[in-house]
Amino acid sequence: MEDEEHLYDLLASFETAMLVTRGRDGHMHARPMAVAEMRADADAYFVTSIDSPKVAEIYADADVLLTFQSAHQYAAIYGRVNIVRERALIDRLWKDSWKLWFNGPSDSTIALLRFDADRGELWNDLGLLGVQYAFEGKKAYMRADTAGAAGSRQFRPEQ
Questions:
Q1: Which pLDDT tens digit goes with each residue over 129-149?
Q2: Residue 15 belongs to a domain with what CATH number?
Q3: How many domains is the chain partitioned into structurally?
Q4: Is residue 138, in this structure, part of any structural domain at all?
Q5: How many angstroms separate the CA atoms of 104 and 100, rounded?
Q6: Whole-prediction pTM
């Protein structure tokens, strides 16, 4: 539970995430996405156009990766995305900044991506974990080796 609270505290501070999908050609495709809503269980909503190529990629393969990054903390969250066209939810989540892409919440092309988190990893180079990771990194450098995942913590949201 503590890891989930830490994760939510970290993710709630982000306005943007990188959404990674797999294209029909099998190649991965990443793009920044504005976070419409972040939930305590690491589930999230994003806004998009129903005509966006990412929607076709999601219909073909709904398994995605979200990444978040700050100056000293990083997260990779794996899960599935569903396309949501629910008007009441779009109205509730609507942000004026979306006017750059849509003609208001009733725009016929607006859709939400509902991300359902499955698992994830956190990295932190602050405090004890940061010191431990820096130490592991220096040790690995001296051995001409690679650093392990000393600063990494894995989690699975409660179902």
A1: 543 444 344 445 555 555 554
A2: 2.30.110.10
A3: 1
A4: no
A5: 10
A6: 0.76
Asked if the structure places residue 67 within a domain, the reply is yes
Quickly list DSSP for 66-126. EEEE-SSEEEEEEEEEEEE--HHHHHHH--GGGGGT-SSTT-TTEEEEEEEEEEEEEEE-S
Integer Cα distance of 104 and 95 in angstroms = 9
* Sign of the torsion angle spanned by Cα atoms 101, 104, 109, 115: positive
> pLDDT at position 89, please?
96
So what's the pLDDT on residue 39? 85
114 is in which domain, residue-wise? 2-125
With respect to residue 137, please indicate whether it lies within any of the assigned structural domains. Answer: no
Find all residues with CB under 8 Å of 34, minimum gap 6, and list them.
15, 16, 46, 47, 95, 97, 98
Helix (H) or strand (E) holding 131: helix 127-142
Q: How confident is the model at residue 104 (pLDDT cuts 50, 70, 90)?
A: very high
